[in-house]
Design goal:
Length: 486
């Protein structure tokens, strides 16, 4: 903060009893500050004080003398410059929870000493002070011992040991995604697939935890509406440039319908669009070697850039970069620097390589068809393997579908889809219960590899007679697909 004597400052006050936060625009007859909305009132309407001169002292003196209970209010001073309108909303949010953000606000707090109180006043104030105890609760990390690891390994092929050795688990227990990709092996129908995804935990209504894979997408879906918000041409350019939208926008909570001000970013490894409510953003006061004051924190909480900072990392690396908050990484990131661009190029190469691996699940490194030794859990002989590599339709043998119906199983490599397809032939289809009229959609999707438009993004086998999502969970899957189209 500039320490020159001609610098002007403004005050933001907080009523410690009601929690009301407002910018000071004057003083009421009873000595209390007259306040206006700090987030919307322009700087021109606020009372300004010259730093180190009498007006600030006079206001505080009058306040102390006239207010019946000075300790009811807290005051915080900020520079009255052209950045005020940008950082005021973030500052107001921080001051709203002054106890939780006490360390951040300490450099800006105006210390006042309450006048001596009578015994009666002290007795009257005691109950209020009890009510003013901090109510902020820091969320505890997930206890890994409470997670059903056997279920996760069976469903996704992920072991606790894998996450611990990679260092990902220590971040995931704090509601973060894994910083790197893992190979998960979900099963669709009778086949298992190997797919790359970031991982996170979800807390279920019953208190249990589920593993959530965030599959790699070919590209971010910026042409589609995201939680009620449509990205403009400028938004798309900014997201492609830095990975961050650079401003808070109002998004609609799909569960409550409530509009929430959020920052938006793109996960560079998965291309998933992510959002984080501004009031849930926590910014440390130090990033690498850079100390952040409240003005800088306010700019970052609103998606803005702290430009041309000279960064020194613990490993000795030095470079110049802009600082910006990433909703995807839940942290400050370096953008618009040579080092950043080099890292982005490396990330892009890693992305392309990983995406190619996802696309080429059924191929070798040279692009040729990968040999298969089993299909639908049935071993293939050498002739069957050779026929498959030659693109022929291969008779696997007699088996049963998921409903237990007898059928003859064939499979063949599909060059357009670049993957094998299963075909089942029923000896007497008209007499098979599994293909009754109400179950034809189920049979076609679960067994024949067909796609039903109303359920194409649902990651669970259809039930008998089902032609649409059966519950809210499947409706959410259909609206927000979490994996590549298979």
């Amino acid at each position: 903060m500039d320490q020159t004597t001609d610098q002007q400052e403004v005050l933001i006050a907080r009523n410690n009893e009601s929690g009301q936060v407002g910018a000071v625009v004057g003083q009421n007859p009873d000595g209390t500050p007259r306040m206006a909305d700090a987030k919307s009132t322009p700087l021109s309407e606020l009372v300004k004080f010259s730093k180190g001169q009498n007006p600030l002292e006079a206001f505080m003196s009058n306040f102390m003398r006239q207010a019946k209970n000075p300790t009811l209010f807290s005051f915080f001073k900020f520079p009255a410059d052209d950045k005020y309108d940008i950082i005021a909303p973030a500052m107001a949010d921080l001051i709203q929870k002054a106890d939780e953000n006490a360390e951040m606000l300490k450099p800006n707090k105006v210390e006042i000493e309450a006048p001596a109180q009578t015994v009666e006043q002290k007795q009257e104030e005691a109950p209020k002070q009890e009510q003013q105890k901090p109510t902020g609760i820091k969320l505890a990390p997930i206890n890994p011992d409470l997670i059903d690891w056997d279920k996760i390994e069976k469903q996704w092929g992920i072991k606790r040991d894998d996450l611990e050795k990679s260092g990902a688990l220590s971040q995931m227990v704090y509601n973060h995604k894994s910083p790197q990709l893992f190979t998960v092996t979900p099963q669709f129908g009778d086949e298992k697939y190997s797919l790359e995804a970031k991982l996170s935990f979800r807390t279920n209504p019953d208190g249990s935890y589920s593993l959530v894979p965030h599959f790699v997408r070919n590209e971010p879906q910026l042409d589609q509406e995201f939680k009620g918000y449509s990205f403009t041409k400028e938004d798309k350019a900014e997201l492609h440039k830095t990975g961050n939208l650079g401003k808070p926008v109002e998004l609609t909570d799909p569960k409550t319908g409530e509009k929430v001000k959020c920052l938006v970013s793109i996960d560079k490894l998965t291309n998933e669009i992510e959002a984080l409510p501004v009031d849930k953003i926590y910014i440390k006061q130090k990033v690498a070697n850079i100390d952040l004051d409240m003005r800088a924190i306010g700019i970052l909480k609103n998606g803005g850039l702290i430009r041309e900072q000279h960064v020194e990392l613990p490993n000795g690396a030095k470079f110049t970069a802009d600082l910006q908050y990433s909703a995807s990484k839940r942290d400050i990131v370096f953008v618009n620097s040579d080092k950043y661009r080099q890292e982005q190029t490396q990330d892009s190469k890693q992305e392309n390589k990983q995406q190619e691996q996802v696309k080429d699940t059924w191929h070798l490194a040279d692009g040729s068809i990968k040999p298969l030794k089993n299909w639908c859990k049935i071993p293939l002989n050498e002739q069957q393997q050779t026929d498959y590599l030659a693109g022929k339709k291969v008779l696997v043998g007699e088996g049963k579908d998921r409903d237990g119906n007898d059928c003859t199983i064939y499979f063949q490599y599909n060059p357009e889809l670049r993957q094998p397809e299963t075909t089942r032939v029923y000896p007497d289809r008209d007499k098979v219960v599994g293909v009754a009229e109400e179950s034809k959609t189920q049979l076609a999707v679960n067994n024949d590899g067909k796609t039903n438009e109303a359920t194409k993004n649902v990651n669970e086998p259809l039930q008998r007679g089902q032609t649409a999502p059966k519950d809210e969970n499947q409706q959410q899957q259909q609206r927000k697909p979490k994996g590549p189209k298979l």
